[in-house]
Task: inverse folding
């Protein structure tokens, strides 16, 4: 178990290092020089040189890379070129807001999609199953901005049941804050529903067909007990892993949703940094996304192995 | 008395293959999801190719005096914030994405398959290095990778195709590698190795045809995601530049009118994207069922 954990952490660290190299190289692939880009084509060559020097971009690439990674490890991610504040400050606040939005989405989607997947599996082949499966598949494939438009039109403009604005007074009580986050979280819910319901359905069907389920039924246990104690217990394990791997997708979705609803999270920061060519913010932002994803998958792997006795007890012969 | 029993003549390999394809075609025609998907796709391809004959108005000519007119007989889908005909823009708007999405998917499939074959065939250090790099790319959502690169090189149809295509490659690499790992154990690969065939020959001539099934299925599934990703990038303003009537771009331009209840310039392109996405997914789903029989 310990060896398994150490191996997973080591692999994640290697991936992280490669990711930092990829991000660094991608943001330096730009032809031309940084000072020139900031000051424009008519600036004096000497002031371009001075700016390059003060930004440190006239040093060798390897030195710049080590400097950047070193700063990152100490929590110093440089200054944002667009906002003129430390990048770490912006990212921390953005991450906090995004976590709030993502939590609302997860609180809605996890019970809903697991329930949907279980129902679809137990009613396999019926109309209910087809509706959940095909509906989920279509919802998953739909870009968030398309579903957002339909949801805004129906829920905010026509029925007027949900507020379109995510701006709440900072001293508002938590329930009001959550209420304002429901509409922007719904497009994320729609995309995630298909994934999670599909995996749950597959897991439940596999468990229903397993020998231990047959044994339980033949033992004379009630169908209810069989489903709850034998089927769901085994079927929901893969679901946990899937929920965590969807964090990566989730951040991609947040870029669109936060930009559309003008919500100040990490997705909107990434969007602004890219449109403003704010490279310190882009690099740190993308790196943060990678770290969040790797930590989430690591937690998924570990919790999965803790729940699965076959992995937990492996190597303990 | 001896009866002559007519034994069925053994079929030639070519005839067998033809029969298998006929069988698949029959199955395809009986798969409703595949047929609906193909139908909607053909409808949009028709719109894209013959846009100049179908569209009632010029898609980019502004007409400020008639801006934001609700749907009527002369403008079936109404007019947008610049007085342009929404129906004509929806018809012309199919062009960008119908070219970009298949090209990006094709690029990703070709690159991903090649890397997957190499990683699955060589094992050892080559495999480890390739799969680590793949994992690193997979740690970023496609949209974020695309934004990172587009920030550096600037947005255009070509860069979007390159970015989405190469962004998909790692995912396809994983699928192909898994398929190659099980193929490489089989006797025919061993036989080719013992014949001292070169590695590229074994990979591309011997193994590739046998992993084509997963590759084709992966291609169609990725096509759906390509539509998703490219539409999203144009919506964010990093794809095709204005005044192109591209659906995602149109939605981002007209989105602010939605709040004042001018729904038609936004809803119709949104429905167009939705229909295309569902069609591609039904096509992918149907095709994988036909091929997996």
Result:
């Amino acid at each position: 178990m310990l060896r398994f954990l150490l191996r997973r952490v080591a692999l994640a660290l290697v991936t992280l290092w490669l990711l930092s190299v990829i991000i660094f190289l991608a943001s330096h692939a730009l032809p031309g020089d940084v000072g020139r880009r900031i000051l424009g084509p008519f600036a004096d060559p000497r002031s371009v040189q001075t700016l390059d020097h003060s930004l440190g971009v006239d040093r060798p690439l390897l030195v710049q890379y080590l400097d950047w990674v070193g700063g990152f490890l100490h929590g110093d991610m440089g200054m944002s070129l667009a906002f003129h504040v430390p990048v770490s400050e912006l990212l921390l606040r953005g991450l906090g807001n995004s976590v709030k939005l993502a939590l609302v989405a997860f609180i809605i989607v996890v019970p809903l999609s697991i329930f949907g997947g279980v129902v679809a599996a137990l009613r396999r082949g019926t109309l209910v199953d087809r509706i959940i499966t095909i509906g989920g598949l279509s919802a998953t494939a739909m870009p968030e901005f398309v579903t957002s438009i339909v949801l805004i039109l129906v829920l905010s403009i026509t029925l007027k049941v949900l507020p379109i604005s995510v701006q709440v007074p900072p001293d508002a009580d938590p329930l009001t804050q959550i209420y304002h986050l429901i509409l922007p979280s719904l497009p994320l819910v729609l995309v995630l529903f298909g994934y999670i319901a599909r995996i749950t359905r597959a897991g439940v069907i596999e468990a229903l067909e397993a020998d231990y389920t047959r044994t339980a039924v033949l033992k004379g246990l009630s169908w209810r007990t069989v489903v709850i104690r034998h089927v769901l217990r085994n079927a929901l394990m893969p679901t946990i892993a899937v929920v965590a791997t969807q964090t990566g997708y989730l951040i991609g979705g947040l870029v669109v949703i936060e930009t559309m609803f003008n919500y100040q999270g990490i997705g909107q920061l990434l969007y602004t940094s890219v449109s403003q060519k704010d490279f310190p913010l882009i690099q740190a932002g993308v790196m943060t996304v990678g770290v969040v994803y790797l930590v989430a998958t690591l937690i998924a792997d570990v919790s999965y192995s803790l729940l699965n006795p076959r992995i937990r007890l492996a190597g303990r012969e | 008395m001896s009866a002559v029993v007519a034994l069925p003549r053994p079929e030639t390999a070519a005839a067998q293959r033809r029969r298998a394809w006929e069988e698949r075609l029959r199955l395809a025609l009986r798969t409703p999801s595949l047929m609906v998907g193909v139908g909607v796709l053909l409808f949009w391809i028709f719109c894209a190719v013959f846009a100049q004959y179908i569209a009632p108005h010029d898609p980019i000519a502004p007409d400020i005096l008639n801006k934001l007119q609700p749907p009527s007989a002369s403008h079936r889908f109404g007019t947008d914030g610049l007085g342009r005909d929404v129906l004509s823009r929806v018809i012309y708007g199919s062009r960008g994405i119908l070219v970009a999405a298949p090209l990006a998917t094709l690029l990703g499939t070709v690159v991903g398959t090649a890397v997957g074959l190499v990683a699955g065939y060589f094992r050892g250090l080559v495999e480890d290095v390739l799969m680590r790099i793949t994992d690193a790319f997979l740690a970023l959502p496609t949209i974020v990778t695309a934004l990172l690169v587009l920030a550096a090189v600037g947005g255009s149809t070509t860069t979007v195709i390159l970015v989405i295509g190469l962004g998909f490659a790692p995912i396809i690499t994983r699928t192909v590698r898994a398929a190659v790992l099980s193929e490489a154990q089989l006797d025919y690969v061993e036989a080719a190795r013992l014949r001292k065939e070169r590695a590229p020959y074994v990979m591309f001539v011997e193994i590739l045809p046998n992993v084509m099934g997963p590759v084709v299925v992966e291609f169609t599934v990725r096509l759906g995601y390509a539509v998703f990703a490219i539409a999203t990038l144009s919506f964010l303003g990093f794809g095709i530049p204005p005044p192109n009537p591209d659906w995602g771009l149109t939605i981002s331009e007209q989105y602010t009118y939605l709040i004042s209840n001018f729904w038609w310039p936004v809803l119709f392109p949104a429905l167009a994207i939705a229909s295309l996405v569902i069609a591609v997914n039904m096509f992918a789903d149907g095709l994988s069922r036909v091929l997996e029989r």
